[in-house]
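chain below, 356 aa
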Amino acid sequence: MPRVVVGLSGGVDSSVAALLLKQQGYEVVGLFMKNWEDDDTEEFCPSRQDLIDAAAVADRIGIEIEAVNFSKEYKERVFANFLAEYSAGRTPNPDILCNSEIKFRAFLDHAMQLGADLIATGHYARVREVDGLFQLLKAEDGSKDQSYFLYRLNQSQLAKTLFPLGDLYKRDVREIARQAGLPTSEKKDSTGICFIGERPFREFLNRYLPKQPGEMRTAEGKVVGRHEGLMYYTLGQRQGLNIGGSKDGSGEPWFVAAKDMVNNVLTVVQGHEHPLLLKQRLVAQDLHWIAGHQPREHWVYAAKTRYRQADAPCEIDSLIASSCEICFAGKQWAITPGQSVVVYESQVCLGGGIIV
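prediction:
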C-alpha cells in the first residue's frame, strides 16, 4: 500500500485522519510541524503539549511520528507577509498562506524526502479527479468546510493530498476518536493562528508594529474619538473602539467603515446596515485558479469574502491574468481589503484572489 505522511497537529481531526488511513491499509507516518518559536509560551501557543498529544496518538494508533521545525520558513513565507499587509492597512489571512506555503509545500517536500507517496491532513475538504484534473470540493459537513482556506493549492499539491475527513461530520469524527480511545477525543479545537493563539491581538501586533494614534471620525467628518493605529482595526470591527455610547442618541453600535492611510483617519459609522458597510462589487488581485485556467466571465458563480459566510451569487468580469472584478447579486457586508474572495461552482472550489 502507498506510504502516507499525515500532518499530526495534536488535535482530534488529524488524529482521526491518521487512524482512518491506518485502518484503510496505508503505511502511515505522522509528522508534527512546529511553525512558531518566538514567545512560544504554554499560555498562548502550547506547541509542547500539542507535540505530546500527537505522540500519544501515534503510539495509540501504532505509527511512527517525527517532529520537524518549519519556523524559519513560516517567518519568511507567512509572517513577513502578515506584517507587511497590516502595515499597509489591509487585513490578511495568514492561514491561507500557511496552507499553500507550509502545510502543502514545505511539509509536502519534507514528506517526499521521507519516501511518501501521498500526504494527508485533518482538513474538512475533498479532492476528486475528473479527466486528469484534480478538483477541490467542499466538505460534506458544510459547517466545518475548510475549502476557503485551501483555494491557493495547485494541481501538483492536490494530486498528492488525501483529506480523510471530507465525507464526515465533526460529531462523527469525535465519536470515532472516542471509540478508538484516542487521547485527543475530547480536546478542544484550537482557534486562530498559532503565533497569536488566544492572546490579545492588538498587544501582540504592537510588538512588531508600533502605535500610530490618530483621529476617529464619522462619515460626515466629525471627530468622535482616537484610534491607536490603523493597522489594529479591520473593516466591520465593532469591539475595542472605545467611543462610548451613541453620539446622536440612536443607540446603534459603532463599526469601522474605512481607513484613510494618508491622513491616518479611521472612519466609523453607526448601525450594522450603514451604507458604507455594504458593497456590491470588489476588485481582486493575485488570482489563483486551481485548475490552471480562468473561469468564464459573466457566468453565475458563488463566492464568499470571509470564511464564516454563506455563498453569495456573483459574476466575474474585467478578468485578466492578475486581477478581476466580482459583482454580487446582493450587497455584501464589510468587504475587507487583504482578505480573500473565493469562488465556487456548486461544490467545486475554483480558486480566488486577494481583495484590494
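The chain is about 25% helix and 30% strand. The chain has three domains: 3-179, 211-272, 276-355.
thats it, cya
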